[in-house]
Amino acid sequence: MAGVLIDPSRAPVPFGRWAVPQLFEELRRPETDGRRRALASLCDLMHDPERIYQTVNGGFLEQCRDLLMDEDPSVRTETCELLNLLTGHAIGRQALLSSSLLPPLSQLLDDDSSSCRTGAHHVLNCLAQLPAAAEALLSLVPKLMLKLGEEEEEEAQVLLLSTVSYCSRMDPLPALSYDGVSLLGHKLSHRSPNIRREAAAAMMALSVLDDGKRQVCEGALLPVLVHLLQDDNLEVQTNAAGVLMYTLILTTGKQLCLELGIIPVLLHLVKRDEQAEEKVRKALILYSLRALTSLAEAPDGRHLLLEQLPLLVRRSEAPEEDQDIRQAAQTAIRVINRAS
Asked: How far apart, in Å, are the Cα atoms of 293 and each of 116, 232, 290, 332?
């Protein structure tokens, strides 16, 4: 028995356990409008975890393959929305990873419809948050880097950068070998704080490797990153500090950043006590303290930091301070004093 059709953009939804099977059956019909309406109703149902479980375990997911290649862009977009809702749950991500849907999803990155491309990016980004999936998506990184220079939609760029970041945390080499530092570097000065944030996050993943650190130094990106330490967006600041934390391990990175006058900027970030999201605030201070510790290994850096020991001592002794921050400040003090 079917429910009452109230919204003409939705297909009538059968009651009980027949809802998902019948709606997926509707997707086999040749009428485009019928497929769109069935997809819209299925998306409504996917807000119920029980329906997600039924979809995944009922073997219905593979039907989406043909829909991802449907001639109608609205059907392709709505199919991406359905998959995005599924991948919002662990069981859905695992099922999609085991399916044959990744190739047609990756093909949608070249779709003429911006809504289709963005929809595909949503699915891949959600999927990449699962470590096993991020590893499986590493083969897509060269294509993602190429798309970075072509995609104009801000939302799609943010999702793309975020996916690259997740994948590069698993293995930075694919992005590094595809001129990743240079491509990401162009995004660090973007007008959108969301794009700056994600570009810096991906850059941080690449700078874990020595080759990434060297490319950051050689690509004249340190002035941009030091400037981002004073960005209006706290997460942009934090990710830029993370890149610098890694890059300052290199002697070249130390020298170049000292010439840029980075120490007062980092000290300001360490000193600042304004209210912010605790997790982000902690990361920013930790990254800044670790960057200062690396700078203390250089004679010029040590000389400047000896004058700032009282600030670091306060950070290391404050009883209300986070333990990780206290320990990072204590490490910085030991390096400064040992070097002196």
From this structure: 47, 25, 5, 5
The last residue of a domain, from among 206, 230, 260: 260
Contact 314, 275 (CB under 8 A): no
Q: What is 40-70 written as a DSSP string?
A: HHHHHHTTSHHHHHHHHHTT-GGGHHHHHT-
Q: 28-43 as b/e, with b when 16 or more CB fall inside 10 Å?
A: eeeeeeebbbbbbbbb
Same domain, 251 and 281: no
Tokens of 230: 């004073």
What domain range includes position 62? 1-128
Domain count, the chain: 3
Q: Mark whether 234 and 293 lie in a shared domain.
A: no
In a domain, residue 83? The reply is: yes
Angle, CA of 205, 221 and 172, to the nearest 5°: 20
CATH number for 44 = 1.25.10.10
What is the dihedral sign for C-alpha 36, 42, 46, 52? negative
For residues 147 and 77, membership in a common domain is answered with no
Question: Is position 268 within any domain?
Answer: no
CA dihedral 209, 194, 115, 87 (to 10 degrees): 60
The single residue listed with the structure tokens 């991020």 is 134
Beta bridge partner(s), residue 14: 2
- 279-325 pLDDT, tens digit per residue, is 678 999 999 999 999 999 999 999 999 999 998 998 888 777 788 99
Count CB neighbours of 253 within 10 A.
25
What are the tens digits of pLDDT across the range 203-222? 999 999 999 999 999 999 99
Q: 310: how many CB neighbours lie within 10 A of its CB?
A: 8
The answer to whether the predicted template modeling score (pTM) of the entire model surpasses 0.85 is: yes
